[in-house]
Amino acid sequence: MSGGKNKPKVGDRLRVWWWDYVNHTNTLLSDAKPARCWTEGRLMRETGEYIVLASSLYVDENGEPEGKDICGDYTVIIRGGIEKIEQLK
Fold first, then answer.
1. Residue 5 has what pLDDT?
2. What mean pLDDT do residues 37-58 have?
3. What is the mean pLDDT of residues 49-73?
4. Is 56 left (phi over 0), alpha (psi -120 to 50) or beta?
């Protein structure tokens, strides 16, 4: 991962700058390009091919995620599209 001296760990809060795949239908060739964006969230999973950020986690009455397979809102980002990763406090 790029963007900092310390490698982010699962659980860290990040802002990831990345290029999203985009489908263009019935459009001009000049408009056909990927979309640059950033996503902020907690790093939940990291593989050689992609990372997973959580923007929301669904919790129990104590404010804790339930079970091992946590229910949440996730963004999966392919490593080849990552431009920069910033750790947030």
1. 64
2. 97
3. 93
4. beta
d(CA 68, CA 66): 7
**Residue 26 — left, alpha, or beta (φ > 0 → left; ψ -120 to 50 → alpha)?**
left
End-to-end CA distance of the chain: 18
Whole-model pTM?
0.85
**CA pair distance 43, 4, nearest whole angstrom:** 15
Give the 3-state secondary structure of residue 30: helix
Percentage of the chain with pLDDT > 90? Answer: 84
**Contacts of residue 29, Cβ cutoff 8 Å, sequence gap at least 6:** none
